[in-house]
Amino acid sequence: MFKYMKTLNYPVNIKKKDLKMAKYLHTQFGGSNSELAAALRYFSQKFSMPDEKGKSLLNDIATEELGHVEMIATMIKQLTEGASVEEMKSAGLGDMYSEHGMGVYPSNASGVPFTTGYFAVTGDPIADISEDMAAEQKARAVYENLIELATDEDVIGPLLFLRQREIIHFNRFKELYKYYKKKGY
Amino acid sequence: MLFENNDYDFDILNLAGFNFNRPQHSYYEYEKQNNGLVSTEEGFLKGNMWKNEYAPYKNMPPVRLKPTCEREALLFKIMEIDFAVNDLNLYLDLHPEDMEMYECFKKYTEECIELKDQYARMYGPLTLDETQGNTYDWMKNPWPWDKTGGSMYV
For residue B20, which phi and psi values (nearest 5 degrees)? Predict the structure, then answer.
């Protein structure tokens, strides 16, 4: 059971409209290395973890990732606040506007809808946790690309926070991986 | 450059004039110990409670948070302590036998509950089970993705 807390994981308070940045940020909302992919990946994989360490860690990281999905969607929402159709068009968001208006839809930066094909569930803890480690590194790299693309401190702050979370999650998954290897899985 | 100042003061959330009551029982005692943790202020801004696991990108320092009113300052403090609970939670999932860290976890959890209760009494509920006031105000704005006049919580 999930219970909602009416805060973000880390404050997002973007005052300056930036439609191009909003477009780029979609990659972490509904792209292949996105927070949504991470949340659903760990949420689904938790059901085949063999012991209490794996079950709890995947459950708890999945929960945190859902909070990160909310942060990214909030950033997109705030970056597009008050934009005109003309501005959307000239920022390359005309295609997205035609289908989603000013709504926030989980797609990648090019507008390709999210798919669960972006992750795997094998039922094998070693295979699944290996994928989780790679996923955290890929998301870290994407955050670094996004930080390079960003110009506003209000955008860079949350991105630095989220990037560090990828590093922590990688470290935890790596610990779990080593522990399961030692146990002979 | 955005980040010319590398001398970072992490004690930024207890700004003069923002005098909400932070429970005193936990953090001085725990953060002084040499247990591998940074302070909750530092941890929240860096995205990581562990001294030896922080790996900044191109040495960029975290961005300073600037609460604009007492309500926002209290909210940030709740988010900060809740973050510490979360980071210790992931560690304890793999190291449940670490009693020292479990004691920290319990103190932060307790502190978070107290601060959330204080917030609910002053400004409204952050969780559904805190919705106990005279009117049903769970659905009232702001929601976390809202912003009004440049600040979400004003």
Answer: -70, 160
Residue showing tokens 């040499």: B34
| pTM (2 d.p.) | 0.91
Q: Contact A70/B150, CB-based, under 8 Å? A: no
Contact between chains at A60 and B93 (C-beta distance less than 8 A): yes
How many angstroms separate the CA atoms of B151 and B75, rounded? 13
Residues spanned by the domain of A170:
19-183
Q: Would A48 be classed as within a structural domain?
A: yes
What ranges do the domains of chain B cover? Answer: 27-130
Q: How many CB atoms lie within 10 A of CB A97?
A: 17
Average pLDDT, chain B: 81
Please tell me whether residue B50 adopts helix, strand or coil conformation. strand
User: Which residue among B79, B82, B129 sits closest to A11, beta carbon to beta carbon?
Assistant: B79
A 10 A CB-CB count for B19 gives: 10
Q: Which of B12, B42, B88, B94 to mutate to test the interface with A (most CBs of A within 10 A)?
A: B94
Nearest Cβ partner for A60 among B53, B78, B90: B90
Residue type, B27: Y
Spans of chain B, pLDDT less than 70? 1-34, 148-154
Q: How many domains does chain A have?
A: 1
Q: Given CA atoms B144, A10, A120, A138 in this order, what sign does their dihedral have?
A: positive
Q: What distance in Å separates residue A146's CA from the closest CA in chain B?
A: 12
Give ipTM to 2 decimals.
0.96
- The Cα diameter of chain B in Å comes to 51
Dihedral (CA of A147, A150, A156, A159) sign: negative
Instruction: State how far the Cα of B106 lies from the Cα of A3, in Å rounded to an integer.
Output: 20
Amino acid making up residue B50:
W
Closest C-alpha to B44, from A153, A70, A157 = A157
Q: Residue B103, Cβ neighbours under 10 Å: how many? A: 15
